[in-house]
């Protein structure tokens, strides 16, 4: 099973799209809860980490530019 690795500033693809129709979100705060910002309407939401990991499909672009094998 694929392990989800994500970090601050990453652009992630969510399983469920935002009401505005965009499912790409930027991680703007990391912690016990994660704050993500919709790249479409710039609305931000705070969600528990476990829920985020469940709803996140994959990392589209890593902010740190790390090399990933996928
Ligand atoms: Zn939105």
From TrEMBL:
> Which Pfam family is one of those matched by this entry?
DUF951
Q: Which InterPro entries does this chain map to?
A: DUF951
The highest taxon in the source lineage is Bacteria
Mind telling me what this protein is named?
DUF951 domain-containing protein
Q: Which organism is it from?
A: Paenibacillus graminis
The root-end lineage is: Bacteria, Bacillati, Bacillota, Bacilli, Bacillales
């Amino acid at each position: 099973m694929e392990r989800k690795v994500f970090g601050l500033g990453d652009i992630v693809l969510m399983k469920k799209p935002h009401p505005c129709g965009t499912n790409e979100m930027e991680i703007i705060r990391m912690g016990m809860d994660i704050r993500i910002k919709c790249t479409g309407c710039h609305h931000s939401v705070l969600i528990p980490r476990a829920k985020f990991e469940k709803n996140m499909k994959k990392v589209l672009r890593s902010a740190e530019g790390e090399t990933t094998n996928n």
